[in-house]
Amino acid sequence: MQVTITVNGLPYTREVEPRLLLVHFLRDELNLTGTHWGCDTSNCGVCTVQLDGVPVKSCTVLAVMADGHEVTTVEGLERDGELDAVQKGFMECHGLQCGFCTPGMLLTARWLLDREPHPDEGTIREAISGQLCRCTGYENIVKSIQRAAEL
Amino acid sequence: MQVPAQFEYARAQSVSHALSLLDRYGPEARVVAGGHSLIPMMKLRLAQPEALIDINDLSELSRIEVEGGELVIGALVRHAELLASAPATGLFPIFQDAERVIADPIVRNRGTVGGSLCQGDPSEDLSAVFAALRATAIIEGGDGRRSVPIRDFHEGPYETAVQAGELLIELRVPATPGTGSAYVKVERRVGDWAVAAAGAVLSVAGGVIERAGIGLTAVGAEHFCAPEAEEYLTGREPGEEAFAEAGRIAAEHCSPQPDQRGPADYKRHLAAELTARALRTAMERI
């Protein structure tokens, strides 16, 4: 069936099978491979994207369910060549090692800071508790989000 | 890569449209909302519906309101919305206790109250919460709406009173003032299913317990409740002794199954201990 999904501000119309998952629509149809594909069971959170501004795990959303909706991926965080504050925070505080969890972490961090501009450490840890960092780099991820809040 | 089997997809525009779609696609169609139970099962081919009816656009099912002395929670309310709802958690802190430990914040953004109940997983938390609260489920089908007491809603693991062609509309909880409530869960790690959990709802009048509600998760309690323990508490003075005995009675009447989350005797121990703890906290909150 035909769907039109607005991704990072641009509408994309594609013919898809209803069983196509949003993560594969983004990666395989649109070539937006910044969204990673991990456990496939909505546990690890590397596939996290924003659907209508709210973080969701895109391995557990069908592309057809996003028809007519807006999706933001990590590729949509920068504005006019300028990195988002969360991206700068992760750069400055070494918030990534292998980078596999980073896109999802960035989108959740952006959402958190939009709702709560100066979260305490506990709030940050709670917000990212549905996402696994395989390098166990949580200390620096938390610091990166705290830094982003200052930027 | 986990890929569901093929199915047809239709998006409902209203409750009546959803019902007509369910009628058109027949008994092998399934309703999808958050999809966080159904889609993983479809990916594992444990579920192979012929059609999905998407109800995410039915905003009339997203309300949380106090109406005519009842708290009304729509089936499409997301876990995150219930957790953040001042009317719901103000009346019944049990919702906050339970929602904080259901999966993780990202899953809670998508998963729904109605979906959790309709999935009917024996380890699902809200089933015990609504059982403790003695909620009523409102179900709509071709013949109109009907009310089902939540303790008749779950007919067995993964089986509910919602029949083919019907849709769960909302949950209604009597908004009794002067009620204390709490939910306590033991899990192996953050966001996991419960090893065991217990919910309690208490009201006290004239120094004795007027009404007690006890919900149990993942311990094989029939209809997620503990009527024998509730009966024991009714008319008694609230206190440690009564709560411990209620826990003992609740544990005696459940039938936990050993699995990777623990042996049966451990789960039975938890049922007793967590029931007493939930009752204690509920009492403190009156």
Automatic annotation (TrEMBL), chain A:
Its EC number is 1.2.7.4. PROSITE patterns: 2FE2S_FER_2. One of its GO terms (molecular function) is anaerobic carbon-monoxide dehydrogenase activity. Pathway: Alkaloid degradation; nicotine degradation. Residues 1-77 form the 2Fe-2S ferredoxin-type domain. InterPro entries: 2Fe-2S-bd, 2Fe-2S-bd_dom_sf, 2Fe-2S_ferredoxin-like_sf, 2Fe-2S_ferredoxin-type, Beta-grasp_dom_sf, Diverse_Oxidoreductases. The keyword Hydrolase does not apply. It comes from Nonomuraea soli. Keywords: 2Fe-2S, Iron, Iron-sulfur, Metal-binding, Oxidoreductase. It is an enzyme of class 1 (oxidoreductase). The keyword Coiled coil does not apply. It comes from the Bacteria. Pfam families: Fer2, Fer2_2. This is Carbon-monoxide dehydrogenase small subunit.
Automatic annotation (TrEMBL), chain B:
One of its GO terms (molecular function) is FAD binding. InterPro entries: CO_DH_flav_C (IPR005107), CO_DH_flav_C_dom_sf (IPR036683), Diverse_Substr_Oxidored (IPR051312), FAD-bd_PCMH (IPR016166), FAD-bd_PCMH-like_sf (IPR036318), FAD-bd_PCMH_sub1 (IPR016167), FAD-bd_PCMH_sub2 (IPR016169), Mopterin_DH_FAD-bd (IPR002346). Its EC number is 1.2.7.4. Residues 2-178 form the FAD-binding PCMH-type domain. Keywords: FAD, Flavoprotein, Oxidoreductase. This is Carbon-monoxide dehydrogenase medium subunit.
